[in-house]
């Protein structure tokens, strides 16, 4: 068996508007001006407390904690109005890979388990993933803990696994776990960042990604 691990935000779902709106709301709640969208998106993939420390390193722990709480509240309310859409081709890719009897699918995401469960339910992706690794129980990417847990749960060795992601955090996590990293260019980090952090290949759409995974699994 081989294991294919997907990031979520920026890889499977286009959540940039939800993320930027929630972070802007959170900063406003503590009296700060919202950050530019590009600045917010550069931290997508990190666990939320780590992301806030990256965006506002000079603020006190108490203010950072208030931003985290406000972000969670805003994002939870946004989910009641609709979930972030899948990128074009994502469902077809997952469906095709899930039909293979030599591949296992998993998720490693900086989202909370509650947020991941809402995404899976909202898009009808129940049963696609055998392992769900979230920020709730692991250190933030690029620490390899999430990937190592997925490998342990599935019994697949690192050299038979691949990590699919859109950020340097994903690629660095893959390298740290001894897993092949495939970078997708439709997400939140530019291609050069993915290369610099060890992406074995870069793919520009889900059709190319599906083909690359099938070639890797051949």
UniProtKB/TrEMBL annotation:
The keyword Cell division does not apply. Keywords: Hydrolase. The keyword Hydrolase applies. InterPro entries: HAD-like_hydrolase_sf, HAD-like_sf, HAD-SF_hydro_IA, HAD_2, HAD_sf, PGP-like_dom2. One of its GO terms (cellular component) is cytosol. It comes from the Bacteria. GO terms for biological process: DNA repair. GO terms for molecular function: phosphoglycolate phosphatase activity. This is HAD family hydrolase. It comes from Paracoccus aestuarii.
